[in-house]
Amino acid sequence: MLTLHAADLLIADPGTDPVPDGAVAVDGDTIAAIGPYEEVAAAFPQARVRRWRGVLTPGLRQPAAGALLRGAYHPDPREYADLGERPLTGERLASLPMDETRWSGSIRRGLQQMLRHGTTALAGPFPDPLTATAVTRSGLRVLPAGTPGEADLDPLRHTPLADAVASPLTVGARADFAVFDVPDVAALEAAGAATCVATVLAGRLVHRRR
User: Fold this and answer.
1) Which residues, other chains included, contact 161 with Cβ-Cβ below 8 Å and sequence gap of 6+?
2) DSSP 8-state assignment for residue 180
3) Do residues 136 and 122 make contact, with C-beta atoms less than 8 angstroms apart?
4) Residue 44 neighbours by CB under 8 Å, 6+ apart
5) Residue 198 in contact with residue 119, Cβ under 8 Å?
6) How far apart are alpha carbons 50 and 67 in whole angstroms?
7) Model confidence over 132-189: pLDDT tens digits?
């Protein structure tokens, strides 16, 4: 089914001018059109429309995925009262009795947290079979490793949007993008990726803030 994702501001490529009231048309897992909403809607009059408040950008790349998935424990919500909600590292991680089942749940929750931060691609590789299997099942793209930087679920914490996106949005490319509840790029870089309200991965809406 064709779907139009419309937003107050579309940034298909951080190196180009943003498009006010822009839209991305998605056909299956592929981008079919990009541009002003009126033009895209006229080209696909039968498409379902999802309208988002904020800025639609390419999906983000998580450069420290390995450290976040295997070097941190992401607590189960049932453990929040005892462990808190933040990932546990260092001595706190070392104090936990970890087995394969617990690691598997942590990795899965870590991937979910990344999707909630607009991430659509991870810096690999993942030699650990447990992590590699979970990443494959998630549908997140795996890109060559770069400079990992500080491990943080927010790819925008120390990096501008232009350097944090996985790849620009282009017609014919895989439909990976995110929407953030901010008015512009400056506000997004100031507030960070926790403002993500929706993440689309290969055309599928995999995260939507309630």
Assistant:
1) 11, 14, 57, 185, 188, 189
2) E
3) no
4) 2, 4, 25, 32, 33
5) no
6) 35
7) 999 999 999 999 887 666 789 999 999 999 999 999 999 999 999 999 999 999 999 9
